[in-house]
């Protein structure tokens, strides 16, 4: 196979991979685990975003009542209850994450404006602010600047 044919074949393969990702994988990933109503309906925190260019709604179903799940959700964060994910991987990046295996009474309250860090101060890891909290129902985190309109990102 000549060099030109190889370059053309690689280019077409690359276009195919990118096209498949954009048309099939990305839309599925942006609404991973959601129902149609969840993906297209209004959710708490949507009013903080306004007219977003890109949105993602992801969900999981937990077979437990909200009162049993909330204590684990409210203690999320670095130097709190962790993120219940890949602690070793996160710590490879110096994030100092330690996932709790029990409810931590000192981290059972959040108020609007409280900071939730993804890494230790000074590490360069982002942090979020509590934008809305309704115990056992809603926890909306926002990127810094949402109050002034600088950043419309809400999680």
Strand order of the largest sheet: 1-2-3
Provide the residue-averaged pLDDT. Answer: 87
Q: Termini separation (Å)?
A: 50 Å
- Which spans of ≥5 residues are poorly predicted at pLDDT below 50? none
Q: Strand pairing plus helix content: what structural class? A: alpha+beta
Number of helices: 5
Shape: extended
What is the count of distinct domains?
2
The H/E string reads: HHHHHEEE
Major sheet attributes: 3 strands, antiparallel
> C-alpha Rg, in Å?
20 Å
Number of strands: 3
DSSP strand content = 5-15%
> Helicity range of the residues?
25-40%
Structural features:
5 helices, three-stranded antiparallel β-sheet, 155 residues, alpha+beta, 2 domains
Structure explained in plain terms:
The protein is of the alpha+beta class and 155 residues long. It folds into two domains: 1-30; 42-148, no CATH class. It contains five helices and three strands. It has helices at 3-30, 36-40, 46-49, 66-74, 87-92, and strands at residues 115-117, 127-134, 138-142. It has a three-stranded antiparallel sheet, with no helix packed on it. The longest helix is centred in the first third of the chain and has 28 residues, at 3-30. The termini are far apart. The mean pLDDT is 87.
